[in-house]
Amino acid sequence: MKDIVLSITASLLVLGITLTPFAIAQPVQAAPLIEGKDHPILLQRMTVTASPLPG
After folding, report:
1. pTM over 0.85
2. How far apart are CA 52 and CA 45, in angstroms?
């Protein structure tokens, strides 16, 4: 019975250590909006991937 309790305790400790960085992380802030001529413009960074065009 002691082995089961120690195993569960160790598992919970490892799980807590693993999830701690996610709990501490700050939430992502919303990207700012600026008023465009016809519609609002969302200012946010994007990752763009490109591939060569077929020749």
Report:
1. no
2. 23
25-38: pLDDT as tens digits:
777 777 777 777 77
Q: Which two tokens stand for residue 6?
A: 């120690």
Q: Which pair of structure tokens corresponds to residue 53? A: 């065009």
Q: What is the signed CA dihedral for 2, 7, 12, 13, rounded to 10 degrees?
A: 90
How far apart are alpha carbons 42 and 46 in whole angstroms? 11
| Cα→Cα distances 2→9, 13, 40, Å | 10, 16, 62
Residue corresponding to tokens 């501490």: 24
Q: Give the angle subtended at the CA of 49 by the CAs of 47 and 38, to the nearest 5°.
A: 55
Q: CA geometry: angle at 13 spanning 11 and 14, to 5°?
A: 65
